[in-house]
Amino acid sequence: MTSVSTSPSQAAPVDVPEPAEIRRWATEQGILILAHSYQDGFIQECAHFVGDSLELARYAAEEDAEAICFAGVHFMAETAKLLNPSARVFVPDMEAGCSLASSCKGADLATYQQHLEQKLGKRPVTVAYINCTAEVKALCDIICTSGNAREVVDSIPQDQPILFVPDMHLGGWLNEVTGREMILWNGACQVHELFSVDTLRALQAEHPGCITISHPECPKAVRDASDHVLGTAGMLRMVKQQEGQTFLVGTEGNMIYRLEREAPQNTYIPAPGASCACNLCPFMALNTPEKLWACLQERGPEVTVPAELFEPARASLQRMLAL
Ligand code: SF4
Q1: Would residue 310 count as lying in a domain?
Q2: Closest residue (by CA) to atom 1 of ligand 1?
Q3: CA 130/CA 54 separation, integer angstroms
Q4: How far apart are the C-alpha atoms of 313 and 306, rounded to whole Å?
Q5: By alpha-carbon position, which residue is closest to atom 5 of ligand 1?
Q6: For residue 79, how far is the Cα from the chain centroid?
Q7: Tally of domains in the chain
């Protein structure tokens, strides 16, 4: 056991083994540790693989893992379970939810789908951003991620009405880039919604020549003030192609750790929120190094998906993967 000294994007020192030791121990136990890019640096260092929710679920499926410790929020662990039915999936904290996923309840969505069917005379295709519960995935026709959302929407015939859930900002951006008029659910990520365009513009003035990259979950004003609107995987691809560049980054603050680690040749400045410099996800922050270590040792808490939701939710994910 040791105290681990951490960078600003990492958790405070904790009385748990070093990240490499945690990873080695988990490997011996046959547990795959997956961490989302929005987890703090310590947890990213513990992981066998770091990525966005879809990359992580795909990686787990390819690895044919028997046990997965998923350091992310609940809907991501559910997605990993849906794509890896035989694996046991553990999470460090069962309470790690998501404001975006919580904004769209299955019962409310089912009622709205019925209402739209009556109003439009035909049932709209429901496209769900992957940041939603298994209950919502089971009710929709196809899933998308921020990286493939445009392709998914473009695959739907032009004369077919679309309901897009749950993120109104990602949906609004998709309407802009595809020319569609999708009906948007009124949900938002509480982290991305709070980025301030005024502070962003002030930072841009301070750093002439910088490149601003923002996530499509950001509000329109922030997207419009950005040079590129990209999901986290797209951000990573872009910065790896640059040398000596300064990037203003409009997404959850821990992403900076991953960018600095994988493309250290550039400088990264986090875009601040409206009321403070905090742009960290409080749900992701529930997963601490101590809880991760306890989760590995106890093999729990375990995430399950109710049997009646499993196949329809998995089918929606597989329609996306088939594209
Ligand atoms: S950053 Fe936003 S979308 Fe991601 S888990 Fe946190 S609240 Fe949900």
Answers
A1: no
A2: 281
A3: 8
A4: 10
A5: 98
A6: 11
A7: 3
Same domain, 164 and 183: yes
Tell me the pLDDT tens digit for each residue of 152-207. 999 999 999 999 999 999 999 999 999 999 999 999 999 999 998 999 999 999 99
Tell me, in angstroms, the distance from the centre of ligand 1 to residue 79's CA.
Answer: 15
> How far is Cα 227 from Cα 44, in angstroms, rounded to an integer?
28
CATH code at position 290: 3.40.50.10800
Tracing tokens 């409080």 back to the chain, one arrives at 282
Are 10 and 93 contained in the same domain?
yes
Ligand 1 pocket, residue 100 CB under 6 Å: yes
User: Ligand 1: which of 168, 191, 249, 278 to mutate, most ligand atoms within 8 Å of CB?
Assistant: 191
Q: Which residue has a Cα nearest atom 3 of ligand 1?
A: 189
pLDDT-based confidence at 63, cuts 50/70/90? Answer: confident
Q: From the CA of 181, how far away is ligand 1's center (Å)?
A: 25
pLDDT, one tens digit per residue, over 79-125 is 999 999 999 999 999 999 999 999 999 999 999 999 999 999 999 99
Alpha-carbon Rg of the chain, whole angstroms?
A: 20
Q: Residue 255: give the domain boundaries.
A: 192-270
Q: Enter the pTM of the model.
A: 0.94
